[in-house]
């Protein structure tokens, strides 16, 4: 059935950014200052995968360095020169470059904008239920349940608000 309330097409840069910059608990959420995501997939009612137009201001990062057990991820750089951090080290990226992160391999990844110019990229990820996120550099783990992330310390204890 066609949902007539969904748009047919939009100008991606005109979509309102997410109000909440991060769903991480503190002290991690504040590290996402300078990151802006426009949830393009949600706008069209996509259920199997998400697409975000993401901007990183100078000095900001895409996420904590992380890996997924079930969800594949893909990024495509549109503007700027971020550095991709993985277990292999730092890899400079430029417009037109892309990278993919296969689920289950345990290789943590993140983008950091170490330049004085804005970085813009597309990120695509699937929405596999039961996914777990691991964070090799931080005391954090995540479980994707019913379309939402639940975060705990690595020992399973809850973060307090």
Mind telling me the CATH superfamily name? Jelly Rolls
Radius of gyration: 16 Å
pLDDT < 50 runs, ≥5 residues: none
What strand line-up does the widest sheet have?
A: 1-2-9-4-7
The CATH topology annotation reads as Jelly Rolls
Largest sheet: 5 strands, antiparallel
Shape: globular
Per CATH, the architecture is: Sandwich
What gap, in angstroms, lies between the N and C termini? Answer: 41 Å
Count of DSSP H/I helices? 1
Query: What is the element string, with H for helices and E for strands?
Result: EHEEEEEEEEEEE
Helix content: under 10%
> Domains counted in the coordinates: how many?
1
> What portion of the residues fall into strands of 2 or more residues?
35-45%
CATH class: Mainly Beta
Structural class: mainly beta
Would you report the number of β strands?
12
> What's the pLDDT, averaged over the residues?
94
What would your notes on this structure say?
The model has no long low-confidence stretch (mean pLDDT 94). A five-stranded antiparallel sheet has the order 1-2-9-4-7. The chain is an all-beta fold and 161 residues long. It contains one helix and twelve strands, in the order βαβββββββββββ. It has a single domain (12-152), classed as Sandwich (Jelly Rolls).
Question: Could you give the topology of this structure?
Answer:
Elements: E1 35-39, H1 40-43, E2 49-56, E3 67-68, E4 73-79, E5 83-86, E6 89-92, E7 98-101, E8 110-112, E9 119-126, E10 132-134, E11 141-145, E12 148-152
Antiparallel strand pairs: 1-2, 2-9, 3-10, 4-7, 4-9, 5-6, 5-8, 10-11, 11-12
